[in-house]
Amino acid sequence: GAGVSQSPRYKVAKRGQDVALRCDPISGHVSLFWYQQALGQGPEFLTYFQNEAQLDKSGLPSDRFFAERPEGSVSTLKIQRTQQEDSAVYLCASSPLTANTEAFFGQGTRLTVV
Amino acid sequence: AQRVTQPEKLLSVFKGAPVELKCNYSYSGSPELFWYVQYSRQRLQLLLRHISRESIKGFTADLNKGETSFHLKKPFAQEEDSAMYYCALSPSGYSTLTFGKGTMLLVSP
Asked: Nearest by CB to B94, which of A3, A35, A98?
């Protein structure tokens, strides 16, 4: 595919359940970002990878959130023991390299915790 | 810490009217500023960035460092401009984006 692909598109989780969200970036893109977008808000930064290295995880809201990109391509955002406040759209974006190049966004995964 | 403020949640205009979507930022250095747009049922995409000084789909945005603003303008709005618009900031040399809360633009016929 030509764009950033995220799966699943929708996820309903019971409170306390663990979830895993997948991001397939554009092939060859070095940088990968995760953002969280709550209803009525703009996207908020969670974490950033350059290849397989997680260079910034300052936006992760708690230690229940964990992200990885083991081979420098596909990334997974894992949320353990989900809570209602985790309900949001999770956006993945990739870009060729740093220094203010365009970030290409996926369609997002809408997580609803019930 | 950086911050982006978009004071209007909703801006409603008639087709052919001028449009200005406001964006103010706070950052101690010299940031890069962007406008992203999300059309209905589509993904977030870049509209324009200030370093390119370009006009995309008739939209322009000028960075005013004195007023710390980066307002988005279009002289004659079209119905297809209806979308959610986000202003975003990136610190120089580092590509993580800080977004505003967004402004919904509705252009009526």
From this structure: A98
Distance of alpha carbon B93 from alpha carbon B61, whole angstroms: 21
Interface touch B99/A42, C-beta < 8 Å: yes
The CA distance from A58 to the nearest CA of chain B, in Å, is 11
* Chain B residue closest in CA terms to A49: B96
Q: Which of A34-43, B22-31, B89-98, B99-108 has the lowest mean pLDDT?
A: B89-98
Note the pLDDT tens digit of each residue in B18-33.
999 999 999 988 888 9
Mean pLDDT for B35-48 is 94
Do the chains contact at A45 and B98, CB–CB below 8 Å? yes
Minimal-distance CA residue of chain A relative to B90: A100
Q: What angle do CA B25, B54, B19 make, to 5 degrees?
A: 65
**What CATH number labels A5-113?**
2.60.40.10
Domain architecture of chain B: domains with CATH: 3-108 (2.60.40.10)
Backbone region of residue A17 per phi and psi (left: phi > 0; alpha: psi in -120 to 50; beta: other values): beta
Mean pLDDT of chain B: 92
Burial of A41 (C-beta count, 10 Å sphere; 0-12/13-18/19+) = middle
Interface contact B32-A42, CB threshold 8 A: no
B95/A103 Cβ within 8 A: yes
DSSP single-letter state for residue B52: G
Structural domain spans, chain A: 5-113
